[in-house]
Amino acid sequence: MELDNLKNLFYLDFYNISFLRTFIDIFLVSVIFYFLYITLRKTRALQLFIGLGVILLLGAISSYYELELLDWLIDSFRPALLFLVIVLLQPELRRVFSDLTKSKLIKIFLMKPNFELDEIVDAVKTMANSKTGAIIAITKDISLRDIVERSVQIDAIISSSLLLTIFKKNSPLHDGAVIIEQNRIASASSYFPLSDNLDRAATMGARHRSALGLSEETDAVIIVTSEERGEISICFNGEMIHPIKPFELKTMLLTYLQARIKINPNSPHEDLRNQTPKKVEEVV
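and the corresponding structure tokens:
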């Protein structure tokens, strides 16, 4: 009798453990798929996954109904699908892993950086005054070393005069961006991935679109000055704040550089500005 009770108890415990394991398994897979959907929606990746789904569905149908020619064709392409996904989705995969490093759990182990902004702010104000187009990316937790290595590497102390020289019209380096990493000018003539969010980037110029694209994939804070209007914009966490008044630039930069959560730039910050920023679609 006691042996039967022990068997029943063991069976119940095993059943409960199995049920809990199955529940955790389903929950984690659901979270992963939801996270991927949130990250990849409104990008070309979602369309590519739909196409892959259609191919896999055709493969299942051809196997079930024994359509030999179609089955052979799909089997021939199947080994290359994984490499095709990796090549075509390289920007989106980089964005997924970048988002992982933004999580609070990871950031607990990261040291809080110190940012020297006076020279940058002075240069940006001067360029906005003279309507000089410029784009400056200040890195935070996510390094842009892969972009730096493909750019003109400088590794210089930050100075207003150097930034103004780099972005001077008709200079060899003025077309690209400057990357500031670890309080040094790491590179110039850097080129960033363009934003593929067609809802917002359709009416932007290349400079603003590339700044928005980098902010979607990393946690960098990007400053843009317009050569048409002489206005200052900031891109952070996939959003664009526009326009920025010169006197509030440093305070806003510090706010975004020290931010550990996503800030909604479309809601006015009482301590930073007195008006709601214009919509992104108005940026030229």
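(Above: one complete record from the training split.) The chain has a mean pLDDT of 76.
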